[in-house]
Write a structure and sequence with these properties.
Helix content: 40-55%
Largest sheet: 4 strands, mixed
Radius of gyration: 14 Å
Distance between the termini: 35 Å
Length: about 120
C-alpha cells in the first residue's frame, strides 16, 4: 500500500491542502474500509504506480506524480533534505520503474544523497 498523490504532497510539505478522504493505492482490489468514523478508500493501482510502496521513497514518487513536471524541482529540493540515505538508495534503485519524465528528478535526489555522504 502507498498513500495517494495529494496526501503525499501534503506529507512532504508541498501542499497545504489536506485531502478530505484518506486514499491509498494498493495492488489488491479497490474497496472502501470503514474504521470507526473514518472512511479509507483503497484504490487498485498497477505496479508502475506502486514504486517503493509503504516507504518514504514511495511517498516522494507519489508526490511527484501528483504535482507533475512543473513542480519537480520543488519535490527534489524537499526530498533531498527529508529522505534518509537509505530511502534515497531505494529511490535510486527504483527510478527505472518510474515514468521517463520523473527519472531525472529521482536520480538528482539520489545523487544529492551521495554528495552529502561523500562530502
Amino acid at each position: 500500500m502507498q498513500i495517494a498523490g495529494a496526501r503525499a504532497a501534503n506529507a512532504l510539505g508541498l501542499s497545504t491542502q489536506v485531502p478530505a478522504q484518506s486514499t491509498y493505492l494498493t495492488d489488491g482490489p479497490s474497496r472502501r474500509v470503514v474504521l470507526g468514523k473514518r472512511v479509507v478508500d483503497l484504490r487498485h493501482a498497477s505496479p508502475k504506480h506502486l514504486i517503493a510502496p509503504g516507504s518514504p521513497a514511495g511517498t516522494v514518487v507519489q508526490a511527484l506524480r501528483h504535482v507533475g513536471p512543473v513542480r519537480a524541482a520543488d519535490v527534489a529540493q524537499v526530498a533531498a533534505r527529508q529522505l534518509s540515505a537509505n530511502d534515497k538508495k531505494t529511490l535510486a534503485s527504483t527510478a527505472l520503474q518510474a515514468p521517463a519524465w520523473m527519472r531525472p528528478t529521482l536520480v538528482s535526489i539520489a545523487n544529492a544523497s551521495m554528495a552529502n555522504i561523500d562530502g
